[in-house]
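A quick word before the example. In earlier lectures we treated sequence and structure as two separate objects. From today on, think of them as two lines of the same record. Here is TRAP transporter large permease protein written that way.
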Amino acid sequence: MVTYISVGLLGLLALSIPVGIVLFLLGFGVDQFFSSFPLSRALGNMVWTSSNSATLIAIPFFVLLGEVLVRSGVATRTYAALDRWVSWLPGGLVHANVATATMFSATSGSSVATAATVATVAMPQAEKLGYDPKLFSGAIAAGGTLGIMIPPSINLIVYGFLTQSSIPQLFLAGLIPGVALAFAFMVVVALICLIRPELGGVRRTFPFPQMLRALIDLVPILILFGLIVGSIYQGWATPTEAAAVGVAGAFVIAAFFGGVNLTMIREALLGTMKITAMIMLIVIGASFLNFTLASAGLGRELTAFMEGLGLGPFGFIMVVVVLYIVLGFFIETLSLMVVTIPIIVPMVLAQGYDAIWFGILMIVLVEMALITPPVGLNLYVVQGARKSGSLNEVMLGAIPFALVMLAMAFLLIAFPQIALWLPNALQ
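And the structure line, produced from the sequence above:
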């Protein structure tokens, strides 16, 4: 059965069939060939139960919030402000790419939206100022991955929904690793550009009064972050309610800067519907596939296989890390999470690991999947924003950042308190 799923998944994806449809087709295949019961008769119930959750309503709200910020020009203002504060570092404007992605991640919840925003704003500067296209574009692709780690994160919401874990606790757990990854990305950029200064373009400085005035353009993002995350942690709002408040705040900020008009609203709503429909198709399709796999006995097969290896907790978690790295080469991140969580998480918990901690470790591993070919979505998003050059340049530029993520995964395994300290401290 495992061979069927692996070959079928890769084969159907190679035919460019949408991921959500692929998951349904695999579910029907499991029903036909591996089950003696007509599992497909439960499809209607699975579609209803997998989508009938108030928690999932937060997804379109967070997507809409990001769309409003992008299309109203707030993201462009944020990028320009950070340019004035970090472009003096070795690597110059590359640091603004990472810093903008970090701040936008604190409101967007989506890695692809974050990467698309920063790429659209930053790419015109790369050629004009003489930056190395590999490092510049790789930093944008890597910075975009922070959208699923730094709260609020759509992927963490989905993880909490599927594992019945506390979403506020997951948000807290992702904060320190997310900020640490952003800082590590900037350190890597600085080191590379100290060794190879020609890769970093021109280091620019700005008058201090101009830098102070630029801080005004950072205030809206900070207010939104405080509004959303603060209301969740204070217990004033659920993640769904906080997302709705965030959307209202985004519209107020956009109106303040004169960015609200009928065209912007129409495009933001259309973009939200497209992204939300894609996410929900994947969630529902994966739920149906997971149901058929569980009914056909795959969970028992995998459990028996892992037990047969005779590994202790550390050896087990290392096998899981390798599994996610390999699967991440071929499967889109949200699909990878939704398909594997119902099978892997119970086994992880049986080894004595914490569900909140494993959620953050999983996010780091699927972040790597966003910038590793052949299915690294952020690579294609950044390449789509470029006017010239090949996808290979973006892939090469992302390699140092993928290695940083791998190092963070091992640090989380060695020091679980990196993720658990903040949730435990504020519990």
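Notice the following. Residues 2-425 form one domain. We will return to this example when we discuss secondary structure assignment.
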